[in-house]
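Entry: DUF1304 domain-containing protein
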Amino acid sequence: MTIAGLVLAGLAAALHVFIFYLESIAWTSPRARATFGTTETEAEATKSLAFNQGFYNLFLALAVFIGLIVFGAGSAAVGLTLVFVGTGSMLAAALVLALSSRELLASALKQGTLPLLGVLCLILGVLV
């Protein structure tokens, strides 16, 4: 189960790198506007906020990626701690998103499913 959890955590991190790209690099593009449901005017007005938020997603992904590397290098406790910090924070952010607006529930599910599955698998892997 630990390997499955690490793979799911890695996929969650990759998704958060993509979210970083959409928010921090491509925020005003038609694809990002369609993804986040914003108009050109709204995207321009919120560009600096999205830029900052994208980096939060990138930093969470980096915690997971570094944890995977450290785990692979033989420091299981430190590696798993970093993976849990990254995925747990992703999961908490998805929960906040879900609770903030019913309209954002689908986005929260997309953002939070992989971290949730990763955390559950890792917990099972640690317990077994």
